[in-house]
Amino acid sequence: MILKTEALTFGFGDGRLLENVSIQIEEGDHIALLGANGSGKTSLIKLIVGEYTPVEGRIVLRNGLSIGYQTQFRITDPVRTLWKECEIVFSNVKEAIRESTEITHDMLSFEKRIRSVLKGLGFEEPDWDREVSTFSGGEQTRISLCKLFLRDYDLLVLDEPTNHLDLASVIWLQNFLKSYQGTLLMVSHDRAIVEAVSNRIFEINARKIWVFNTAYDDYLLQRDRMNDTLQKRKDNLVKEIERQEALIEQFRRWNREKAFKLMHAREKVVDRLKNQLGEYEGMEETTAEIGKLPVPDRTEWIVIQGKAIGKSFENKSVLRHIDFTINRGQKIVLVGKNGIGKTTLLKILTGEDPHYEGTIEKGSKTRIGYLSQTLDFKDESRDVFTELYEIVPEWKDFEIRKYAGRFGFTGEDVFKAIGNLSGGEKLKLSLAKIILEKPNFIILDEPTNHLDIDSIGKLQSILSEYQGSMLIVTHDQWLIQNTFETVWLLTGSGITYPRSVEDYFESVREKPAAFRKKKDLEKTKIDEYQMQKTLKNRLRSIESQLEKIERDYQALESEDHAVRRDMSLYAHEYQKLEALIQKEKRIAGEMEILILKLDELESEHQKTLTEMEEIS
């Protein structure tokens, strides 16, 4: 164990993000911390690194534990070069080199590591001699990552490390983290990285942390199975309470001393079961009836075309002689290094930037919708429903609400003021508005920013259903591979066209290995089927015995009533009365045996149901 939380509770004001959370991180774990936006992922990280203090409970760290945490880069010396900034991490090594009479290979290898990390995170050699103050905010975020990855820590904590990285750097980061030897706790919305890197999943949901000791693919299966199992157990627990209450009523009706004892014992069981109901609360899931996307008008075959497109900023050329054609129905992902001009090209296509070289020719029927990285709303006091209604006032209320549900606005969320929405919610509302206006060519610039993994899954469904043409800039590998068939690679000399998305990824990384073989999965399914079959047969046998006990008891009860009636008739005939008394004792003994057998079978019945739930 390198870290654990004990009954941890945290929140702001009266609200609680985490409640009575106890988890443990072991050495060598690669943990992906998942959860909806606002669920408390960043808060948990800040609790672990000591920036926040728990309301209740505590965090226990192993003695001497070193934690590496991605913090905002602060410029202490504006004229220091990028390379010198990275060398600071190895100041102790450099001091050892100066004082040592024998310089070893390990002592010099730090320079190789600096070069590897700088190149991996997108800094080319000309950047290494630049002063750190000349880098943009996004580039300074990458500098903080560089310095973090240069050192070895017992626990590496990362909060959305792919922000401000281009696709090539994301792929480098994925390979780096996959081979990382230490312990890792990571928040990321990049499903491909989560799939490739993690061996455990922590999900924050309903103020709890649900722990899955498996990789991401199996986590999805286990999560669904767990929620189904919890619901089944809860349903069965309610049925069991009802059955026990009926049994209590039966014992009361049988009116025997032994039955009364069992009745009181069963009443205690019912109280205990009712207390257990709260333990079977599953994850909170957002479900809603969702509407279809409006179908845009058909374009001509050529949607848009660019010839000899060029763009410069202060004598620095960003785009040079770019030629391209987008045809009807094409869904294209535009990739390339940060700063290569992807967003600039999108702004030229949309007309937002009219100052460029070359020509843009749109088809006469082409209508463009543009989702930029800047999300602006005219009136943020308006709610989501009103913002959508303004575009389609002819729609009925329930149709607007179903459509809003497609973008994650369910229930009362449609009446949230725009100003109170998170960054991810504003992005989803912007996209909902764009598609509602029925453009037949949409341009999206980093639409996964601020979205959690589940929201990206919903976005993928929307983009796949959309029937127009599309050009998107994104570094989300999973979204690219599951939505697009065409990739354009923007370089300093123009656009190159890999044969397919898979060919592009094949050229820059290895495919992640499967976590479980298909044969193993099939064998597991067969074993589970056989076990379920055995338990079902046992359950049928127990229920058959219970029915027989009920019939036998009713027969004894009828016989007992007849004996009592005869005893009143022959109260003055000693010999007949003595025989009836002995018969009554025999009946009472047999009834007591049935009561005890019933109690035993009821326990076996509940045990069998529990075993069935555990493998269902």
Average of per-residue pLDDT values: 85
What is the overall silhouette?
elongated
Give the count of structural domains.
4
Unreliable spans: 510-523
Largest sheet: 6 strands, mixed
Instruction: Give the amount of beta strand, in percent.
Output: 15-25%
What strand line-up does the widest sheet have? Answer: 6-7-8-4-9-10
Q: Which key terms come to mind for this protein?
A:
616 residues, alpha/beta, Rossmann fold, six-stranded mixed β-sheet
Structure notes:
It is elongated and about 125 Å long. The protein has helices at 41-48, 82-87, 91-99, 105-120, 125-128, 137-150, 167-178, 191-197, 216-254, 257-276, 342-350, 384-389, 397-406, 423-436, 453-465, 477-483, 501-508, 518-569, 574-615, and strands spanning 3-10, 18-21, 24-25, 30-35, 56-61, 67-69, 155-159, 183-187, 200-205, 208-212, 302-313, 316-327, 331-335, 357-362, 368-371, 441-445, 469-473, 486-491, 494-496. The chain has 19 helices and 19 strands. By secondary structure, it is an alpha/beta fold. It folds into 4 domains: 3-215, Rossmann fold (3-Layer(aba) Sandwich), CATH 3.40.50.300; 216-283; 302-508, P-loop containing nucleotide triphosphate hydrolases (Rossmann fold); 520-616. Helix 9 (216-254) packs antiparallel against helix 19.
